[in-house]
Amino acid sequence: MSRNIFILNGHPGETSLSRQFAERYHSAAQSAGHTTRLMHIRDMAFDADHGQGGYADAKKLEPDLENTLNALEWAQHIVLTTPMWWGGMPAMLKGLFDRTLVPGRTFDTRRTTAIGFPAPMLIGKSARVFMTSDTPDWFFQLIYGAAMQRQLKSQVFGFVGIKPTRFTHFAPASHPKEGQVDRWLETIAKLGAKGL
User: Could you list the pLDDT tens digit for every one of the 196 residues in the chain?
Assistant: First the structure.
């Protein structure tokens, strides 16, 4: 069954593993009949600073942020590729979420969930995060408590209704063993073909 898939490369660099992963997923998904939209955060122009953080006088969304929000609303499945830097996502990616996940489009402050949170508006969608780091997965999970994974799963995607969010962690990313990147790209292509 074909799906509408939004692929966001959250690495701000011109070249990166995240970019390779996003493009490989995009290619495999399209070849399998899925409809995709691919965006690279590096190519986007927007102010990542939310300012005072108020909703009443929020900054107007720049065209690239409006396109991102439209893609999130359109998609059935969201794929994010990102490095983990200093235990979290790159600042530009965090700024994109700060600016794009706005009330009235991604959550409703006029309605609440059973536990009092604003009602999510992007329900019925799933997500996959391809994360790179130099931290071994066991250390990331056991010592760091998978903090970035929990943030994205519960406090970002989950808050606006996107669930489940699945993670695939690739490490070490800076100096992978010979042939390792090709094996990672194979894994990504298989997931892309399945729209997972």
Answer: 899 999 999 999 999 999 999 999 999 999 999 999 999 999 999 999 877 666 777 789 999 999 999 999 999 999 999 999 999 999 999 999 999 999 999 999 899 888 888 999 999 999 999 999 999 889 999 988 899 999 999 999 999 999 999 999 999 999 999 999 999 999 999 999 999 9
Peptide bond into 172 cis (omega under 30): yes
Residues in contact with 106: Cβ distance below 8 Å, sequence separation at least 6, in sequence order: 69, 72, 100, 120, 121, 122, 160, 161
CA distance 135 to 126: 26
φ and ψ at 120, to 5 degrees? -70, 145
Distance CA(59)–CA(113), nearest Å, equals 27
Helix (H) or strand (E) holding 98, with range, is helix 91-100
Would you call 135 helix, strand, or coil by DSSP? coil
State if pTM tops 0.90: yes
